[in-house]
Design brief:
binds pyridoxal-5'-phosphate, 43% helix, 5-stranded mixed sheet, alpha/beta, 7-stranded mixed sheet
Length: 461
């Protein structure tokens, strides 16, 4: 071994061994963690040691101490929040990205990773049915993707009103009116707050949480003539999985000169499946789209995707220039032009890897499988005594309520304690619910069977 290999190889070998052991444990270990954060902190705690130890020993210490505090999130029976697993090609590639240690800010400085992200971006636009000329930024998640897209929206709608927010800031700017559906994800509000746009106007939704076009038309009509407007739509409601009526809503918003942003953290992936594509009909006419690769596409954290149809708008908001007038929207641009960061890891490379591993057909199969497993879980859980599936299961999300809120809470607590599956508790339509999100590529028929059985046990008298 040469000197450098001697410095790295033992720690990497240890990490590989621990990683494989962890992955092997996923089928049988309880899904819930065995220790809480305070207990894990106590294991690792005390004062900072005066003396260090060698890297492989650190990896061993870490793996042993962290083990009881790990949730089996990448397991096939984890259905909490909306959380994907990690595809083997993506995980292995992510390790290599760390080993390469490229600062993926500038195209000329890290050509390999910049090029891989450009190819991944082109493939994503193709798969998601979005305009081929759109710009793509690889960010940390849909929260940051919402922020990035809405920053582009802010620059563009204000520029149209004759205001250069990059040069002159927000003070004294025309008010930007932002309209959102009542069941938008909270991170849209968070992004608006980061951007100094305040709280949005809330538009009514239907029983599945889809924005109502009559309510949207009324809200648009209430905005003073000539004011900048942004409308936020949603592909994939976290409770029902439902999709806003894009064709009608985008049309109404555009008639009024609005920028239309779509939060499609997991739902935008319906476009990759010929049998589910109808759910996002009309979505491509919007102006920006936020999605996650770490959910449906199953790459490791953290990886979100910000897509903006007009590259000038994105590069004006995110590039290192101060004015709308000088942004360069020609050519591929540098990675840092499209995201809030300068230095960052090449998080788009695992996206390239999983797309290469699956191909177009594989991604369609993945999305179809997630939706099929969700329907099977809804069927199975719906037959448990006292359970009622509340939503129309069109995609990957299922919401179930039992006789009353207290009973639903009790079933969830017993289910999580049992450790055979994990599903989130939430509130929807005024009721406490057990929410199921199928987002893991590895969830199979056996996981469905075991999870339905676990709910049945949890709901037994
Ligand atoms: C998960 C999610 C987000 C937030 O995404 P992060 O990746 O957690 O930042 C936003 N919107 C929707 C609809 C989501 O499901």
């Amino acid at each position: 071994m040469d000197a450098r290999e001697e410095q790295y190889a033992p720690a990497l070998d240890a990490a590989r061994d621990h990683a494989v052991r962890w992955l092997r444990s996923l089928d049988e270990r309880p899904v819930r963690p065995q220790a809480d954060a305070d207990a894990v902190a106590a294991t690792f705690g005390g004062d900072l040691p005066e003396d260090g130890c060698d890297p492989a020993a650190v990896v061993d210490l870490l793996a042993a101490g962290a083990e009881p505090g790990l949730m089996a999130m990448p397991a096939g029976r984890f259905f909490g929040w909306v959380i994907g697993g990690t595809h083997p090609a993506a995980l292995a590639t992510d390790w290599l990205v760390s080993a390469w240690d490229q600062n993926n800010a500038l195209r000329y400085a890290s050509p390999a990773t910049a090029a891989l992200e450009e190819v991944a971006a082109r493939w994503l636009l193709d798969l998601l049915g979005l305009p081929a000329g759109a710009d793509v930024g690889f960010v940390t998640g849909a929260t940051t993707a919402n922020f990035t897209c809405l920053a582009a929206a802010r620059s563009a709608v204000l520029a149209k009103a004759g205001w250069d927010v990059g040069a002159d800031g927000l003070t004294g700017a025309p008010r930007v009116h932002v309209l959102v559906g009542r069941e938008r994800h909270e991170t849209v509000d968070l992004a608006l707050r980061h951007l100094g746009l305040g709280s949005p106007a809330v538009v009514d939704v239907d029983d599945e949480g889809r924005i109502r076009t009559d309510a949207l038309a009324a809200a648009l009509a209430a905005v003073p003539e000539g004011s900048p407007v942004v409308v936020c739509l949603q592909a994939g409601n976290i409770h029902s999985g439902a999709f806003d009526p894009f064709a009608a809503a985008v049309g109404l918003a555009h008639e009024r000169g609005a920028w239309v942003h779509v939060d499609g953290a997991f739902g935008l992936w319906a476009a990759a499946s010929p049998s589910l594509r109808h759910l996002v009909a009309g979505v491509a006419a919007a102006d920006s789209w936020a999605t996650d690769a770490h959910k449906t596409l199953n790459v490791p954290y953290d990886c979100g995707v910000a897509v903006v149809a007009d590259p000038t708008a994105l590069r004006t908001a995110m590039g290192m220039r101060s004015s709308y007038l000088v942004a360069d929207d020609t050519g591929p641009g540098d990675p840092h032009d499209k995201v809030p960061e300068l230095s960052r890891r090449a998080r788009g490379v695992p996206v390239w890897a999983v797309l290469r591993a699956l191909g177009r057909r594989g991604v369609a199969d993945l999305v179809d499988r997630l939706a099929a497993r969700a329907r099977e879980l809804a069927d199975g859980i719906g037959r448990v005594d006292g359970a009622q599936v509340l939503n129309d299961v069109v995609f990957t999300q299922v919401c179930v309520a039992f006789e009353d809120d207290a009973r639903t809470r009790e079933v969830i607590a017993r289910l999580l304690e049992g450790g055979h599956a994990w599903m989130s508790g939430s509130r929807w339509r005024g009721r406490h619910v057990l929410r199921v999100s199928v987002s893991n590529w590895s969830t199979d028929a056996d996981d469905v069977r075991r999870s339905v059985a676990a709910v049945r046990v949890a709901a037994s008298p």
